[in-house]
Amino acid sequence: MSCYRIALNFEDGVTRFIECKDGEKVLDAAFRNKINLPMDCSDGVCGTCKCRAESGSYDLGDDFIDDALTSDEAEGGLVLTCQMKPTSDCVVAVPTTSAACKTAQQSFSATVARVSPHNDAAIVLELEVDAAQAFLPGQYVNIDVPGSGLNRSYSFSTAPGEARIGFLIKKIPGGLMSNWLERAEVGTTLQLTGPLGSFYLREVQRPLLFLAGGTGLAPFLSMLEVLARENSTQRIHLIYGVTRDLDLVLVDEVEAYTKRLANFTFVTVVAEETSSHPRKGWVTQHIPAEVLNGGDVDVYLCGPPPMVDAVRRHFDENGVTPNSFHYEKFTPNAVAKVAA
Questions:
Q1: Among 111, 119, 139, 310, which residue's Cβ finds the most Cβ atoms within 10 Å?
Q2: Is Signal included in the keywords of this UniProt record (predicted)?
């Protein structure tokens, strides 16, 4: 019997993955996994279980009334989970918190496999997990810093489903995680919570523009790996902006995707005026009109708040309205992230 993996993404950023049997309704599969999705009648009458299917294929069902789900709503991706029967893996956005559905963040442990410094700018942390972790490319986890009682948030830089997971961590002098990583030993066990976040790769239906600031490159490495494995032929352009030359890390990994993705291109940009880099300035100064495709483009941005604000202002000032604009703001010591 076929079984499909359904990602339930709650409005508080928590994501839970469930298995849905062939012919099974999402609401029933969620209950079987002890997740109480919103519902009242469960007969397609009240509309209480209405959610948004963000990717995947499914049978909408025909045992519901128009007052519960109109044809326009269905056309826009809304579904009734009491009727929806997946026919592939799906991502479903649930318009309430995980706590309201009697579920919560999941925790798991991992062991340090490798710690690799890159200049004085960043550290690549690789962890081995007992069971391959499910997450959406672009999401993050909270990693407990041993002995501190605190955690730090980092985006996955690897693809979902791997026995080894990776993170690109900004090196901060005196930083809690940076200091710990300087003395971290292979084999040390860490506790992680997640996956989390509403910043993740949606179903690809048009050209993509990726904008990465510093270690905001991490989620795009995860996305690019997934796209390469899917043999995507969609146009993808990445602009990777940093402050200093030394902040440009893992460029060789990005370069490798130009050989695996037929229509992938990228450029790097350095802001520092004294740099000898061929492209200097801000990311917004290096967005060619053609990659915006007249607005028919999905834009993903991960970087510090000033970069996110600058790109939004650039789009507004130039009358650019992308089909969708997904962004995540991060700050070096933030415990939580802000995404849209």
A1: 139
A2: no
